[in-house]
Amino acid sequence: MIAEVLVYVPSIANFYQNRLNDRLAAANTAALVLDAAPSGMVPDSLARQILDSIGARAVAIKHGQQRRLLAIADMPMPVERDVDMRTMMMGTAIYDAFEMMLTKAEGSIRIVGPTSAGGQFIEVVVDEQPLRRSMYRFSINLLLSSLGISILTAGLIYLALHYLFVRPMRRVTANLVAFHAEPENPARIITPTDRADEIGQAERELADMQHDLVSMLHQKSRLAALGLAVSKINHDLRNLLASAQLISDQLATVPDPRVQRFAPKLVRSLERAIAFCQSTLSYGRAQEAAPDRRIVALDPIAAEVRESLGLAADTAIAWVSHIERGMTVDADPDQLFRVLLNLARNAAQALEQRAPDEATGSQIRMLAKREGIVSIIEISDNGPGVPPRAREHLFEAFQSSARPGGTGLGLTIAAELVRAHGGQIRLVDSNIGATFRIEIPDRPVELHAPRGSERASA
Predict the structure, then answer these.
(1) Distance between CA 322 and CA 319 in Å, rounded?
(2) b/e burial code for range 50-69 (CB count within 10 A of at least 16 → b)
(3) Can you tell me the distance from the alpha carbon of 414 to that of 394, in angstroms, rounded to the nearest whole number?
(4) Helices 298-309/333-352 angle, 10° precision
(5) Distance between CA atoms of 387 and 433, rounded to whole angstroms?
(6) Contact criterion met (CB below 8 Å) for 68 and 60
(7) How far apart are CA 82 and CA 112, in angstroms?
(8) Sheet of 318-323, strands arranged across
(9) Global pTM?
(10) Which DSSP string corresponds to 352-385?
(11) pLDDT digits (tens, 9 = 90+) for 149-178
(12) Could you tell me if 365 and 381 are in contact, meaning their C-beta atoms sit under 8 angstroms apart?
């Protein structure tokens, strides 16, 4: 509407000026004809015909101080307004044009303008009504043209919006509805287009999000299946372990020295297995149980890890331990054992996958030391190392296993237990094999001054 007003206002003023100029041009032509008559004598009938042909009521011309009436109708209408085209500006033209259209007078207009017949100026008197009707017709035609252009423009805008935005958004909406119906179906993932605008970026981000969601749902489904399977065997496995524990208790009474040597370790292993069985589903919960931390010696735990893996002196995989003498760790002994066992078992499985000609010299190394209040433990091997594709999701469930049949839970459990101690675990870059570094800080100790010293200082 603003554009229409901005176009219409100068257009109607320009039309008004052009019609008045046309009347002046016709009057100049008539003046030449009338002035050329012998002695200026023109029959009244011819004068009326000339005035009718130019749509005028009267024509006059001024020469010097003399004003000459060239022709006049029988009954000219009263002059309502005078218009001097020699001094008319655009603002005046706009005002006069709207005044002409909005008034209902039936009079005449006296138009004054330059002449080409040798006089100072020429005057022509015309009726208002024909000029007003022509201005109305021009306004209606301009309005209809504007409506046509607006309709065409609206249609083009609609088609452009439909092609650029509505159709892509309908496609995205239909994909969201279909993906919501089958979120685990990879075929429901949207195929992004090559558009470089925000719609294309939204499609690509939606595709990435759906890929991640499908992967996450598959992972959750595996977790659910694992939990269901474990829950089915949990009861029977606990009963079997309980029976084995009763037998181990009877073995502890046998006086054989070798039995007396290994029976406590067997009992301890069965007790730990029963405890593990009772908390098998703890991974499916929000987090592991809080660690029961205390100061424990690291050497016995390392030795128990070695025995649990069956790494004797005559096995193909050598166990090399470099632990500071008398080193202690502020940790839950059972959870620390699980962390070290998972890491050492992964190392042993990696070494077992080596070719027979490369298996010579296989070893697992454990290095432990203290740096201030932080206990540092490194478990490394000289195996093939961690594949690059497994490094991105190393400590995520079901993501880090590169061994056929592996679950990918060992590193995930180890990382969760280390974080529960306020520590961190990471893969250290090495030229040979894989090295995992564990850092567990000691718990902060609150210092309380004795009451006697407080009073003394006061």
Answers:
(1) 10
(2) bbeebbbbbbbbeeeeeeee
(3) 11
(4) 40
(5) 10
(6) yes
(7) 8
(8) 318-323, 363-371, 374-381, 435-441, 424-428
(9) 0.46
(10) HTS-GGG-TT-EEEEEEEEETTEEEEEEEESSS-
(11) 889 999 999 999 998 889 989 999 999 999
(12) yes
